[in-house]
Design a protein that fits this description.
This protein has helices spanning 30-37, 78-85, 98-109, 177-183, 195-200, and strands at 6-7, 16-25, 42-50, 53-65, 68-76, 113-127, 132-143, 157-158, 166-170. With 205 residues, it is α+β, with helices and mostly antiparallel strands. Helices cover 20% and strands 38% of the residues. The N and C termini lie far apart (42 Å). Strands 1, 2, 3, 4, 5, 6, 7, 8 and 9 form a nine-stranded antiparallel beta sheet that branches.
Length: 205
């Protein structure tokens, strides 16, 4: 793919970057069981940072419906992140942002709380035609070390067999034929995969 597509501009010299997300669920673990049961539609909230840096912190609502994925997001501060990880919702200045309002409402009414950290390395190839993103996610790990979420090294455990990784092909309207053929998709079996679900299986409580 390196000869056909560009490497994501956020990647390092090796063409990859680290993604770390803390996922929230309610007191009934609804997000976990909706994923397990294949509920459609369903949505979950997460806070994401890159390369273990808290300079940019993003709150996201990821919604899945009829096999399609939609994301809403907004940036939050380090102070807000620290409060949410300790079980306190104190920030009110973002009450004009829809995704924040949705999250804050669920946080208060459904008692959303941090449940698991998902950590992995990602390599991304991009193409503007069809807004194609081909991602390779490696070294997927699970953690509940919320105290050190924004630090480079956290206590974590791998959740996949050694040498197994995740390939995802994402696009808006079309997948160019030359990319389709280079991926040899005909020889692959498409399957659903939730990093959140698999990571939570190790720490359900």
């Amino acid at each position: 793919l390196g000869g056909l597509m560009k490497v994501d501009k956020h990647a390092d010299a090796d063409g990859k970057y680290n993604i770390r997300s803390v996922y929230f669920d309610d007191y009934q673990n609804s997000g976990y069981y909706e994923n397990e049961n294949g509920t459609d539609p369903r949505e979950k909230f997460r806070i994401r940072i890159y390369n273990a840096s808290t300079e940019v912190i993003v709150l996201e609502c990821k919604r899945k419906a009829h096999g399609m994925t939609q994301k809403q997001s907004c940036k939050i501060t380090k102070e807000t992140l620290d409060g949410l990880l300790s079980g306190e919702l104190t920030t009110l200045e973002m009450n004009d942002i829809p995704v924040w309002n949705k999250f804050a409402t669920a946080y208060n009414t459904r008692q959303l709380r941090p449940k698991v950290i998902v950590d992995y390395e990602r390599t991304v190839y991009v193409c503007p035609i069809g807004n194609v993103r081909v991602t390779f996610d490696r070294n997927i790990s699970s953690s509940t070390d919320f105290k050190h979420f924004g630090e480079k090294n956290i206590a974590k455990r791998p959740i996949m067999p050694c040498g197994h990784h995740i390939l995802e092909v994402k696009y808006d309207e079309l997948l160019p034929d030359y990319i389709y053929k280079s991926l040899e998709i005909e020889a692959l079996q498409r399957t659903t995969f939730s990093k959140y679900y698999l990571c939570r299986k190790y720490n359900m409580k």
